[in-house]
Every structure is written in structure tokens, then in C-alpha cells.
Amino acid sequence: MDLIQKNLLLQIAELHDIPEGAYNIRANGESVGRNTTANIDIVKKEDKDGIDIIIKPGTVNESVHIPVLLSQSGMQETVYNDFYIGEGAEVTIVAGCGIHNCGVDTSKHDGIHTFYLGRNAKVRYIERHYGEGDGNGENVMNPETIVHLEEGAVLEMETTQIKGIDSTNRITRGDLAAGAVLEVHEKIMTHGKQFARTDFSVDLNGDGSSANVVSRSVARDESRQEFYSNINGNCACTGHSECDAIIMDKAVVSASPQLTAGNIDASLIHEAAIGKIAGEQLIKLMTLGLTEAEAEEQIINGFLK
Amino acid sequence: MLELKNICYEIEDDNDNKEILKNINLTIDEHFVAITGPNGGGKSTLAKMIAGIIRPTSGQILLDGEDITELNITERAKKGISYAFQQPVHFKGLTVKDLISIAAGKTMNVNDVCGILSEVGLCARDYIDREINGSLSGGELKRIEIAMILARGTRLSIFDEPEAGIDLWSFSSLIHVFEKMRDEIHGTILIISHQEKILKIADKIIVIAAGEIEKAGSKEEILPSLMYTAASCKSLTDKMANENQL
Ligand SMILES: Nc1ncnc2c1ncn2[C@@H]1O[C@H](COP(=O)(O)OP(=O)(O)OP(=O)(O)O)[C@@H](O)[C@H]1O
Ligand SMILES: [Mg+2]
Q1: What is the DSSP letter of A166?
Q2: What are the start-end ranges of the E strands in A86-209?
Q3: What is the pLDDT of residues A64-115, one digit of tens each?
Q4: What is the pLDDT of residue B141?
């Protein structure tokens, strides 16, 4: 890996070098490093671009890192990664994509991640998207995450896109069996003329299942964001979605939440708030000696923390 | 030393000009000054004006002889003015530690933050990572508001009804915080309060009613009259009556 790739790796996975445990590092379309463990296997797909990550039942305290780096301007790819998590396994999966584009061509990474969580499996899934580059080439990422949760499975998903992605369409689909729990925390910041669209749709199919989708975002300059969420409660279940956006400058944000209850015992809630930074927050921080711009930065950093 | 010269503040209210502060003249060079007076008299307006949050319609504000009337909030904060709000502000995501660090102007380690929080009677470990939002009680938010001013340690500290929402038991230890500040700092503490116990430790008491300074002087001069002029200080006597009953 060169310095540019190492920096991308640091930004998306907080890794200074090769991670511990199982990993697959993909750089400019090729695997540049892979490690498997006794419990975690990583297998290259034969029919299309991507890998299968197979985690044995009962695996605990292990992690998998699968960072994707694009440093060649104009590189475009669609990658399919499938995760098979065995019954009762408890693991952390860190994915993410970093693009460095210093050319004039569009760099694009579309990642389609499908999770199959066995009974009572517990997964913490962390995904960070980051772009940089001094050229005029656009950085585009369209992640699609599809999750199937068997009985009692728990998936916590944290996604972050703070910088440098010009256009993104983030799709998340899920179906949950009895007692399964899906927890999604999304953080997005857009600036310039960027566009971000997020689209969640979750089916709660088993009694006692629950989904909680929380999106916090900041839209600056002339950027645009769209938030769609759809929770279908088909049984005795609980669903909650929350979209909280700070809007600045000439940005445009829209939130379109949808809830469908198909069972008398489904309890579904949606909250959405879009607004500028409260004036009194700025004033408070200014009385502590910050300039208006510094106060804004602190408020946004805290909000997206 | 803080001087207010001919300070007027008018706002437009349904095409009608409303005078909120009427020609205020005031010199504050004592260590510990209390401002009191009835609700709506203009106390918080005056505090906001000193902090630069609102600008006077006319008049001048001087800090140690320097005219600061045209300075903005940040510039005044940097000159050494601190203001603890009557109503603390909520923040999504910023924690107690974040705000204390911002107030102190440096990154604070856990011990530093602990020291300051314990002064205002909060057990630091329970609070340090809490968000400054509606999940904190009113009294907790007030204490954190006071802690931020302690962390700054500036030459002019303004507290707007710091005792509001603080339980009686903690109130006496809060008085000690102010006494300690009074004895230790070289600057000035300006407290807006309705509490006799706070007025009693002040070097000077100023009574503001209907946008004007009704009277100003030592506690010996002012306190007795406050106890009997129920009309102008109804809220004060009410609160004291309540306190006496407890
Ligand atoms: N922006 C505003 N618009 C209209 N009226 C205002 C505005 N700001 C202040 N006032 C009025 O000015 C008067 C003084 O308000 P201020 O908050 O300074 O009172 P106070 O002395 O601090 O009262 P309290 O003891 O209740 O805190 C009040 O009558 C208030 O309604
Ligand atoms: Mg007031």
C-alpha cells in the first residue's frame, strides 16, 4: 500500500496498518491482503466481483475488516459481499470505502452487502465512507445493505459519511424474525453541491422484533439530502425511526417517513426534525469566547459525534 | 470596573416603541454586586447588554475604561466577560466535559472537570459524559451553567438567577461558592437574584424596576427597605415568605 492508500485506510477504518484478525483489503479492484482465522473464512466469489465471509456458529470476540480503497481516478466497480453469520456468533465487522480522486473522471464504488444472521447471532457493523482528491472527478458511492435476521439475532449498524462523497444513494433493506433487533445509526454531512439519499425499508415479521433507525445529518452550502424510511410492522413488534437534520446555507433537506402497521400489536413511531442551528446555542458558545464559525463547528461536531 | 452610561433599550412592539431600559447610569467597581427587582423589570436585558447579546439603542458601556459598546459577544468574552444564562441552553451531542473544556479554553482532563463540577455540587463521574439536553434536570443544568463560568475565571462574571431551581440544601453550598469567588478573584461578580441570602453577601445592591434603577447602595441601606416595599419587590418578599415557611 502507498501513502495515499494508507491514509484512506486510516480515515475509514481507523487503522494505521494491517488489522488484526480476519481481513480483506481491496485496493483498486484487487485484493491486496487477506487473512482468515480458524472461525472466519473469506472466499472470493467465482461468478461476480466480491467475497463471501463465513463465520462459524459460536464465534465470539472476533472481528473482520473489509476496507475498500480507490485511488485510481475513474475507477468504477460493483462489488458483492455476502456475510454468513453462524448461530450465536458475536462479532464486529468493519467495512468502508475510501476514494482518493485527483483526476477528472468519476470514481465509483457500489457495494452490495448481504447479511444472513443465524439465530441469536450478534453483529456490530461499522461502515465509513470517505472521499478526497484535488481533481474535478466526482466520487460516487452507492452502498446497498440487505439484512436477514433470524430469531433473536441482533444487528447494530453504524454508518458514517462525513466528507468528500459527491453523490450517494444508500439503500438498506431488512427483514426480522421473532425477537430480532435491528439498530441503525446513520451520520451524514454534505457540502458543496453534494447529494445524499438514504432509503431504509424494514419488515418486522416476527413477534417481539424491533427496529430503531436514527439518522443525524448536516447539510451545508448547496448540498441536497433526501431521507426515506419505511417500517412495516406485520406482527407484535416495535419500530422507531428518527431523522434529525441541521440545515445551513442554501442546502435542501427532505424527510419522507412512512410507517405501515399490519397488526394491532405493532407499535410504530417516527420523529423528524429539520432546522438550522439554534441561535441560542451559537450565542452561548460565543459568550464562552468562540467566534461564530468556531461555535458552528463545535455544534456540528457534537451533533454528529 | 464596569460603567454604563445613559443606556436606553427600545424595541418595536406592534409599531409601538417599548422602552425596556430607560437611561441607566451605573458604575460597578465592587467585588460582589447583586441586582434585584420585580419580574420583567429589565435585569436580564441589562445582563444580555453587558455580554453583547443585545445592543443598546443609545448609551455607552465601558470595561476598565475601555469603550466596549461596539464589540460583539466573542470580543467581549475574550475581554473577560462571562454570562451564566437564566435559562440554560440545550445542546444535542455536546457533553458536560465538552462545554467545560470550551469554557476553560483548553482540553480538560477528567480530573480538571471533576474539580470544577464538585464545586457546584455535582458528582463528576456521573455527569462528565452526559449530553447537555433535556435529560438533565433543571437544577443540574443551572449548576453546569455556573460551572462553565467558574471554568472561565474571568474578570467580570454575571450570574442570572443562579439559585433558580437549586434545592435549598444545595443552595447554602452554592452561597459558599460565591463567597469563595468573591474572596479569591480580583474581578467583579454580578448576580441577579431574588434571594435574601445572596443579597446579604453583596457589597452593593441595585434594584431595577420598570427599566430604571430604583435604588442602589450598600446592603445596610437597601435590604431593610426591600423587606417593606412590597409593591416594588413583591416577588422578592413572596419568595422569602415561602422560604420562611419551609
Ligand atoms: N424581545 C422582546 N420583545 C418584547 N418584550 C421584551 C423582549 N425582551 C424583553 N422584553 C420585555 O422586557 C421586560 C424586561 O425583561 P427582562 O427579561 O429583562 O426582565 P427581568 O427583570 O429579567 O425579569 P425576571 O425577574 O422575570 O427574570 C419584560 O417586560 C419583557 O417582557
Ligand atoms: Mg430575568
Answers
A1: S
A2: 90-100, 107-117, 122-132, 139-141, 144-149, 154-163, 167-176, 181-190, 195-204
A3: 999 999 888 888 999 999 999 999 999 999 998 888 888 888 999 999 999 9
A4: 92
Q: Which fold has domain B2-88+155-236?
A: Rossmann fold (3.40.50)
State if residue B230 touches ligand 1 by the CB under 6 angstroms criterion.
Answer: no
Of A289, A292, A305, the CB nearest to B93: A305
Give the Cβ contact number of residue A276 at 10 Å: 11
Which chain A residues touch B72 with a CB distance below 8 Å? 286
For residue B5, what is its C-alpha cell?
A: 452610561
Q: Contact at 8 Å (CB) between A241 and A257?
A: yes
Beta bridge partners, B12, equal B17
Q: Which amino acid is at B99?
A: L
Place of cell 448609551: B59
This prediction's pTM:
0.86
Phi and psi torsions of A136, nearest 5° = -100, 0
Contacts of A284 in chain B (CB under 8 A): 85, 89
Position A162: which residue type?
I
Q: Where are the domains of chain A?
A: 3-278
B16 C-beta closer than 6 A to ligand 1? no
Residues 134-153 of B with CB under 8 A from A: 148, 152
Q: How do the domains of chain B map onto residue ranges?
A: 2-88+155-236
C-alpha cell at B42: 429589565
For residue B42, how far is its CA from the centre of ligand 1 (angstroms)? 6
- Give the Å distance between the CA of B81 and the centre of ligand 2: 18
